[in-house]
Amino acid sequence: MTLDQTRLRIAIQKSGRLSKECQKMLKGCGVKLNLREQRLIAHAENMPIDLLLVRDDDIPGLVMDGVVDLGVVGENVLEETVMERQAQGDAAEYNVLKRLDFGGCRLSLAVAQELDYQGVKSLEGKRIATSYPWLLKRYMDSQGVKFKSVMLNGSVEVAPRAGVAEAICDLVSTGATLEANGLVETDVIFRSKAALIQSANALPASKQAVVDTLLPRIQGLQQARESKYIMLHAPKDRLEEVIDLLPGAERPTIMSLAGESNQVAIHMVSSEDMFWETMEGLKALGASSILVLPIEKMME
Ligand code: ATP
Ligand code: MG
């Protein structure tokens, strides 16, 4: 199957930690996808968009080489690819359209629990296993510590136990994998989230129009996820105190309640979550029927 030059091409991870969230994001943007297993290319049914489903490592290169127009990839993979390509003299140009609110993780150094770690200088001359040799080198150079890089593409966390390295430099989100392998996280060297990137070449107007439609929708989804719709009943005579407790800076809507002259209904959209402590504080002021609802989409 060939790719139609007039359709916007987006590369996303085929399967892995970013794939579900990417598909959810596109679906949330109204892109109807017909994803069949084992297919490299998927066509959107209702918009001029083609998806390329690939390994995440390939996504920055596909964008930088102009094979696809957009890509969703972890900043860790992006930054590593930039350094690698620059070292090889390849083009490494791209634009970040949006930092996304998923795929959060950190690239960290970790050592065996037994090791007497006194800061990164303890790793002088030691072997460090990693899939991110360039990010690791940049950090170690900045600390003035010499080390030996052991390149591993997977199962980096078993390297110390296997006697392959004294330390590792790997992605961490909860730290459970490190702990399960008897390792302690010592230095965070890079913090990452997924990013939506675009090739540096200007797009033809028809494709740019699709990007201009998608971007505010992604923004709307992200904003909705961070926001809450808050409803409650409050006594009229404590109204100002109640409003002072509500999270966020927005002013609420006040409505009267049928057949109830001492109470009003308060509705508001807040860009912050409401904590249990705040709800308890509201209740103590005489508020009742306090509801905190998720928002699906929003547009300002
Ligand atoms: P592929 O087969 O596509 O090469 P992979 O095994 O290299 O997949 P995944 O483990 O699916 O990659 O991770 C993809 C991205 O998800 C990472 O590069 C990173 O940006 C992000 N991520 C978020 N949390 C974690 C985590 N705890 N461990 C690893 N990656 C994470
Ligand atoms: Mg990968």
From TrEMBL:
Its main location: cytoplasm. It is found in: Cytoplasm. Residues 224-297 form the Histidine biosynthesis HisG C-terminal domain. The lineage of its organism: Bacteria, Pseudomonadati, Pseudomonadota, Gammaproteobacteria, Aeromonadales. Residues 55-220 form the ATP phosphoribosyltransferase catalytic domain. Catalyzes the condensation of ATP and 5-phosphoribose 1-diphosphate to form N'-(5'-phosphoribosyl)-ATP (PR-ATP). Has a crucial role in the pathway because the rate of histidine biosynthesis seems to be controlled primarily by regulation of HisG enzymatic activity. It catalyses: 1-(5-phospho-beta-D-ribosyl)-ATP + diphosphate = 5-phospho-alpha-D-ribose 1-diphosphate + ATP. HAMAP family: HisG_Long (MF_00079). The gene is hisG. Belongs to the ATP phosphoribosyltransferase family. Long subfamily. It comes from Oceanisphaera pacifica. The keyword Nucleotide-binding applies. The keyword Translocase does not apply. PROSITE patterns: ATP_P_PHORIBOSYLTR. This is ATP phosphoribosyltransferase.
